[in-house]
Design a protein that fits this description.
It contains eight helices and no strands. With about 190 residues, the protein is mainly alpha-helical. It has a single domain (about 5-165), classed as MFS general substrate transporter like domains (Growth Hormone, Chain: A), CATH 1.20.1250.20. α1 runs antiparallel to α2 (about 45-75). The termini are far apart.
């Protein structure tokens, strides 16, 4: 039995695709949660903040269009696996950006991966699921996007309740941060 055939395989595929959809929802909302921190840390103006939020969605439109065609040409599994790799790499690289421009490009690429996932995952699940459970399994996987957004918001709420603020701790005491990491030649301010 393949991953998508039969009841158990359909559920397994639905859960796997649902996890990707969960990450899509988490990431789409997460940028709005971290934007106040990024604005202070990277000295972002309102225009750049707006672009950072918007470019993810613009990338999503292009990703959905490109991967919709790609999945028709190469198959749903190949499209989904390619999308997962693309999304993971662009998400990991975005953790190491050094400038707002780099972050803007990577938000577009992450959005591209999200758009690709939105078309690839449900299409594959629809094709591989047993007809008698198809609606349930699609619903199960697609409900994960708003759940991912909800978890993102709840985590942000819990962090803010615990005293996290948009103020970067390095602004007041950079020498303490450096000393904590083993740099002894730092001067106190």
């Amino acid at each position: 039995m393949g991953l998508g055939t039969g009841y158990r395989g359909g559920v397994s595929l639905s859960v796997l695709i649902g996890l990707g959809t969960f990450l899509d929802g988490y990431d789409l909302l997460n940028i709005s949660v971290v934007l106040p921190f990024l604005a202070r840390l990277m000295h972002l103006g309102p225009e750049m903040q707006g672009l950072l939020g918007t470019f993810t969605y613009i990338g999503g439109v292009f990703g959905a269009l490109v991967f919709g065609v790609f999945s028709d040409l190469r198959g749903r599994r190949v499209a989904l696996l390619s999308d997962i790799i693309f999304f993971l790499i662009s998400s990991l690289i975005s953790a190491f950006v050094a400038s707002p421009g780099q972050l803007l490009v990577l938000r577009f690429l992450v959005g591209f991966g999200i758009g690709a996932d939105i078309v690839s995952g449900p299409a594959l699940l629809s094709e591989e699921s047993p007809a008698s459970r198809r609606g349930f399994l699609l619903g199960l996987s697609l409900i994960m996007m708003p759940l991912g957004g909800l978890i993102s918001a709840l985590l942000a709420y819990l962090l803010f309740c615990r005293g996290f603020t948009t103020k970067c701790p390095l602004e007041d005491h950079p020498w303490r941060w450096c000393r904590a990491r083993g740099h002894s030649n730092t001067t106190q301010e």
